[in-house]
Amino acid sequence: MNARLIGYLLLPARPAGLLFIGILAIGFALCSLAGLLGVPMLLVLSACLFTYGYVLLEHVAHGAREPPVLAIEMLNQATEHRPLLQFAILGLGWLALRSVAPRLGAVPTAALEALALAALPASVAVLALDRAFWRAADPLALWQVARALGASYLAIVALALLYGFGLAALSRYAPLPSWLLHTIAIYAWLSLFAFIGGALFEHRDDLGLEAMYAPERLALRAQAQVERDRDRFLDGVFAQARSGNLRGAWQSIERVLEALGHENDCYEWLHARLAQHEDQRLASRLAQEYIHRLLGRDNGRIVELVRERLRQDAQFHPRTEAETLRVADLLRLAGDRAGAEALQSSFARDAAGPS
After folding, report:
1. Measuring CA to CA, which residue among 278, 269, 257 is closest to residue 227?
2. Which residues fall within 8 angstroms of residue 223, CB to CB, at 6 or more apart?
3. Are 218 and 212 spatial neighbours (Cβ–Cβ below 8 Å)?
4. The pTM is what?
5. Which pLDDT tens digit goes with each residue over 98-114?
6. In CA terms, which of 134, 265, 269, 309 is 20 to 30 Å from 114?
7. CB count in 10 Å sphere of residue 198
8. How far is Cα of residue 285 from the mean position of the Cα atoms in its chain?
């Protein structure tokens, strides 16, 4: 079992979870004091507890690390049917077992009942995440969940049994006030659902679950936002270049380089994007600045960059004669004599000026 699963047991102890537990514990205590008059409210609060458990499980399974904030909409029984469906599945399963019990005998019936109870967490998990509710009663779907979770599923079953027997023992033998017993029971219920959700999240690759808040999904969304920001920036740069304001375009690029600390990654993505523009002057000037910073640090990248520049801009060369000679030597060492001569010839033509 993944050791990180233990942390999911503490999720209901976060502020949003404690607030929900406190509200329900007070409500259950008042219902107890009201006797029969409190039964309708007791049913309503129980429905809220069951519903919030499914909402919590779903959030945690998608990577959330905080319990969802209580909202009336999420507890609306007119739109949230999962608790009722779960009770319907349990009822149908119990009736099916009772109908075959006389023909099977006591021992096989008891074995089937134990198997059905062991499959209940898988049914809860499927119902929480799969909108095809009938799959929560599909033995094949339940087996797939249990097999994917492996030892974590055994831990879920063991935790459910521990909570069940523990609460029964507390209610029978411990002289606890009813409000405290209610609080412990609510916390146990929510922590079990959080534990199931955590197991689903930790085994999301095995289950094929695309968790909304998984690190890899968050990284993709963050990268998509970065790309959008880059697109907006380059749209402005290219607009300046098309209008003939190359100086202004280059100043915009310099400001970005300065803001990002002249990191190599910044030069890399800028060069890749500038090289796609029909006017290669900005890409060549950026390459000159990049080569100046790479000399003596990453000569292999310099060779690759110069070869790429020469394919797109035959007039390219580093910005000074000394740098041109050093880069030409690097090209010769890499076996590219033609590239070295092209660099030196290009620099000599620019140095000579118009004929």
Report:
1. 269
2. none
3. no
4. 0.69
5. 887 788 777 888 888 88
6. 134
7. 26
8. 39
pLDDT digits (tens, 9 = 90+) for 295-351: 888 989 999 999 999 999 988 999 898 999 999 999 999 898 998 888 888 888 887
- 22: Cβ contacts below 8 Å, ≥ 6 apart: 183
Tokens in use for 72?
């009336």
What does the domain layout of the chain look like in residue ranges? Answer: 5-210, 216-352
